[in-house]
Design brief:
This protein is α+β, with helices and mostly antiparallel strands and 359 residues long. The relative contact order is 0.15.
Length: 359
């Protein structure tokens, strides 16, 4: 099993460590609820170095990216980030990811940890543009600094103005270390993601300087447990739960990143057909009852199963059960009443518009 360059820090902080995508990662340090609220109200730091970094280089880099992804990368300019997805020919999702335009002939793709090898193989299989595809996932550390006080924290230790627009990035020095800093994140809060190279000593230096800068805001280390509850409150999809090779981006509510009017891309024809024959949709649901919806539980209405939960929890912010799940299209309209089926018992819920937390 692999370890990130922050592993010794996690151990010193008595983090609960689990295996995730063959990497030992911190699930929590204090409690998921405490860490969740730190990000919502002040600032928290996540070690997300398990994510993958794949570089695309060459004269035809844009052509390749536009062919293999569903979004329109021609709209990007250097310093801009885009959320996108790769699909199989049948419209099923290979992965969802971030696309960074470094220059006209270089893109950085940030992919899910559990899909790095699969994504890399898929890109190489479909490389008809003779671009360079470089998997540099092991070279980078990645910290996500998230929360209302993230800007104030990082500005103290940055060599330039860090007030980036949403989904923009730049290169700068933080704590004297060269890095790519992007105004992105998986929490719905003001936040930044920091990509940098270096050994354990460099990683620990960056971590320590960030925590010293954030001390006045009661900065907290945050594990993958709170990362999951934070993203669910915003309705962000998680690969392997809400989306996978059996789901297409249209039924998953990702039509906004699926540009069916652009030139040919992998899965386009299947998605055009899927658009005309939609039978189910991913919806958000909330309940006023005492229950805990979980991945895999059934959703019912009118005495029969109409779908299943893909992600669920009790929201630390709302203190109510919330969930994402696929339901038959007729039950996907906001305010429709459905039921979570938990251990054979039905708990009333209703379909709502995302996000659960209005920012």
């Amino acid at each position: 099993m692999k370890r990130t360059k922050f592993y010794n820090i996690h151990k010193r902080l008595n983090a609960k460590i689990v295996e995730f995508a063959s990497i030992e990662m911190p699930i929590q340090y204090s409690s998921i609820i405490q860490e969740h609220k730190a990000v919502r109200h002040s600032v928290g730091v996540f070690d997300v170095s398990h994510m993958g970094e794949i570089f695309i280089k060459g004269d035809k880099a844009l052509d390749f990216v536009n062919y293999i992804f569903v979004n329109d990368a021609s709209k990007l300019f250097p310093g801009r980030v885009q959320y996108s997805a790769m699909c199989y020919e049948d419209g099923g999702i290979v992965d969802d990811l971030l696309v960074y335009k470094i220059s006209d002939d270089e893109f950085l793709l940030v992919v899910n940890a559990s899909n790095i090898s699969k994504d890399f193989d898929w890109m190489n299989k479909n490389n008809k543009f003779d671009v360079q595809i470089l998997n540099r996932s092991d070279d980078f550390s990645l910290l996500a600094v998230q929360g209302p006080d993230s800007l104030k924290t990082l500005q103290k230790i940055s060599d330039v103005n860090i007030e980036l627009d949403y989904y923009h990035f730049t290169k700068m020095k933080i704590a004297g270390v060269e890095m790519l800093v992007s105004r992105t994140g998986y929490t719905g809060e003001l936040g930044y993601e920091l990509y940098f190279e270096g050994d354990e000593a460099v990683a620990e230096k960056v971590w320590n300087v960030i925590f010293e800068a954030g001390k006045e805001f009661n900065i907290q280390p945050v594990g993958l447990g709170a990362r999951d509850t934070l993203r669910l409150e915003m309705g962000y999809c998680l690969y392997g739960n809400d989306i996978d090779q059996t789901t297409n981006p249209l039924e998953a509510g990702l039509g906004w990143i699926t540009k069916l009017n652009k030139s040919d891309f992998i899965g386009k024809q299947a998605l055009l057909k899927a658009k005309e024959n939609m039978t189910r949709k991913l919806v958000a649901m909330i309940s006023e009852e005492k229950t805990f919806p979980r991945h895999g539980y059934d959703i019912s209405a009118n005495g029969r199963k109409i779908g299943h939960i893909t992600s669920g929890t009790v929201s630390p912010t709302l203190d109510k059960p919330i969930a994402l799940g696929y339901v038959e299209k007729d039950f996907s309209v906001a305010d429709t009443e459905v039921n979570f089926v938990v251990r054979g018992k039905e708990f009333l819920a209703k379909v709502v518009k995302l996000p659960f937390i209005k920012k």
